[in-house]
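Exercise 7. Given the encoded structure of a 451-residue chain, write a plausible sequence.
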């Protein structure tokens, strides 16, 4: 068991109106109302301004992700000192990612075959306009497997920070951590300095998180104002099927994994409710990456495990995106009347497993990944142009992808820490019994304990 056994000290209770998740929830509701009352067609300037609020919050958080991850990973590896241990944690994480991701792909196929959300559309592929998705297709075609591998290496050390590529940051952080671990006594001083720098970055994140309700309000108002609730009606069954499938996956698959590792999926989702609401408002799981790292540490996972699993999971453990890819692919096949063979089903799964790697938590990444999947299937009976059928609702499905990805990566972190014997059960029990808010984690003494 990792860490010392510490008792839980409850935070001072705040007035309800100062609790972050309540503020974000109110902001989301207000955003929906404003977007509905002031559609973009009639009020383009207002909706455009509100979009800037959401974009500004996302950019502020993304500005701090790279340095926060770098400091966390470097300090974690340097404090491990045993490089075999680092490799063991990484290998266990990748094995877990592949098993659970494959389960997500299979569940998407199973639900699509049982529910058949695309049946009855009877779309003639010849009538589809490929121009509607041309930009997504071109981006997907440029995103090959070799391109993914080469993209792991930044052109310069600092380019990874300016570009914001999580995998690049992870690569240079691992190399730096290994180098610092091999410096001996001098390395301990360097690791301490990096740890202090990390605390500064997390303090800055704590300041930024205070404006999360404003960002969620702007992003949600733009989504409803730009696309409108009417956009949901023609494909409401597909949207409902996707959300229901994601909930099924979280409760059944991830729920079973949680139970096997000694905690409840319901308690866990309550524990990260703040982050879930922020993701719901912004459609991006990247907006809560630093907070998730802090919360997983407070839940008892060791800092080195958190530093390796969370950033890697954001590229390799995208359960929501995997469900979406197979479910959407079969929906499009059913909509155009294409019959898939067993071999084509297998190809879809294999291709989706590859194309999903590297899809980040940014809004719209799942749609590009879907384009890459369809384009990579040999002799595919489903034309890429068929994606135009779901282009208008992708923004509404993006929230569900991001939410499912977030829960999946949080569960993965606790599980890998448990496998590695680096899970403090006392902290886990306290965190599940007394769910903390982001404010608890970025202000005062609790932050010092978490970091």
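Solution.
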């Amino acid at each position: 068991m990792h860490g010392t056994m510490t008792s839980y000290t409850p935070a001072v209770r705040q007035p309800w109106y100062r609790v972050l998740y309540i503020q974000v929830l109110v902001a989301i509701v207000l955003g929906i109302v404003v977007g509905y009352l002031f559609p973009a067609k009639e009020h383009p300037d207002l909706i455009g301004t509100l979009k800037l609020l959401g974009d500004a919050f996302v950019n502020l958080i993304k500005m701090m992700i790279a340095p926060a991850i770098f400091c966390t990973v470097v300090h974690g590896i340097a404090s491990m000192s045993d490089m075999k241990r680092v490799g063991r944690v990484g290998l266990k994480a990748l094995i877990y990612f592949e098993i659970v991701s494959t389960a997500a792909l299979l569940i998407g196929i199973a639900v699509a075959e049982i529910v058949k959300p695309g049946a009855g559309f009877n779309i003639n592929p010849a009538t589809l306009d490929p121009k509607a998705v041309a930009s997504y297709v071109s981006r997907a075609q440029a995103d090959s497997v070799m391109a993914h591998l080469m993209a792991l290496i930044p052109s310069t050390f600092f380019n990874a920070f300016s570009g914001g590529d999580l995998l690049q940051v992870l690569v240079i952080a691992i190399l730096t951590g290994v180098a610092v671990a091999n410096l001996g006594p001098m390395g301990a001083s360097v690791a301490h300095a990096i740890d202090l720098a990390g605390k500064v970055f997390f303090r800055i994140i704590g300041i930024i998180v205070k404006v999360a309700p404003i960002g969620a309000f702007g992003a949600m108002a733009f989504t409803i104002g730009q696309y409108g609730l009417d956009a949901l009606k023609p494909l409401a069954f597909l949207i409902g099927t996707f959300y229901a499938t994601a909930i099924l996956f979280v409760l059944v698959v991830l729920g079973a994994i949680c139970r096997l590792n000694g905690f409840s999926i319901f308690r866990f989702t309550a524990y990260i409710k703040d982050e879930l609401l922020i993701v719901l408002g912004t459609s991006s799981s990247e907006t809560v990456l630093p907070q998730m790292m802090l919360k997983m540490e407070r839940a008892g996972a060791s800092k080195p495990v958190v530093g390796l699993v969370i950033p890697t999971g954001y590229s390799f453990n995208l359960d929501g995106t995997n469900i979406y890819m197979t479910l959407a692919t079969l929906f499009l096949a059913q909509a155009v009347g294409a019959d898939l063979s067993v071999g084509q089903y297998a190809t879809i799964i294999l291709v989706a497993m590859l194309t999903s790697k590297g899809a980040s938590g940014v809004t719209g990444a799942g749609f590009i990944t879907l384009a890459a999947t369809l384009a990579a299937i040999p002799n595919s009976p489903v034309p890429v142009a068929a994606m135009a059928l779901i282009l208008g609702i992708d923004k509404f499905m993006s929230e569900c992808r991001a939410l499912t990805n977030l829960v999946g990566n949080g569960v993965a972190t606790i599980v890998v820490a448990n496998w590695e014997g680096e899970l403090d059960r006392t902290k886990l029990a306290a965190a599940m019994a007394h769910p903390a808010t982001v404010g608890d984690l970025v202000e005062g003494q609790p932050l010092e304990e978490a970091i």
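Remark. Residues 1-11, 441-451 have pLDDT under 50 and may be disordered. Students should compare their own answers with the one above.
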